[in-house]
Design brief:
The protein is α+β, with helices and mostly antiparallel strands. The protein has one domain: Winged helix-like DNA-binding domain superfamily/Winged helix DNA-binding domain (Arc Repressor Mutant, subunit A, Orthogonal Bundle). 44% of the residues lie in helices and 16% in strands. Strands 1-3-2 form a 3-stranded antiparallel β-sheet. A 3-stranded mixed β-sheet has the order 5-4-6, with no helix packed on it. Helix 1 packs across helix 2 and helix 3 crosses helix 4. The longest helix has 27 residues. The protein starts with a helix and ends with a helix.
């Protein structure tokens, strides 16, 4: 019976995600194409920031690089996702539901495997002024190191 209950919970979760996806796309004025739905589903199910290459790996051969790039650009422009951080040409995106207008929770990036994690319980606050003439508009913090899996090796 436990297997049946777990299947039912899985179906409920997928139905809830479908409704959320449809609402996000409709609100943003974007069409619900198969590719957009699949990419947005990844973000909802991953629960963590994702880079373009990670999305492509998770999707397999369902979408090409250009389609994923265009989808991420459209989602960013529409406010469905935002860039958690940029490291050189490496961009990592996430749903903006855990961030405020002026600050975003810190992120951890593994130098070994490239995994990115949200550090929602880790808070960084700056005090005072930034210096003569500087005006803070948004705070983003990235902590780099090794994840537990990479630390073992």
């Amino acid at each position: 019976m436990a297997g049946v209950k777990n299947k039912d919970k899985g179906k409920e979760h997928k139905q809830k995600n479908r409704g959320r996806i449809a609402g996000l796309l409709r609100k943003s004025g974007l069409k619900a194409t198969k590719g957009r739905v699949e990419v947005l589903t990844l973000f909802l199910e991953a629960g963590r920031p994702l880079a373009q290459m990670q999305i492509m790996d998770l999707l397999g051969m369902k979408l090409d690089r250009a389609s994923v790039y265009r989808t991420l650009s459209a989602f960013t422009d529409a406010g469905i996702i935002h860039m958690a951080y940029v490291d050189g040409r490496h961009r990592v995106y996430e749903l903006p539901d855990k961030c405020g207008a002026q600050s975003c929770h810190p992120h951890f990036s593994c130098r070994g495997c490239g995994m990115t994690a949200c550090l929602e319980d880790f808070h960084v606050h700056y005090r005072g002024t930034l210096g003569k003439g500087f005006v803070a508009e948004r705070q983003k913090v990235l902590i780099e190191g090794l994840c537990p899996d990479c630390k073992k090796t």
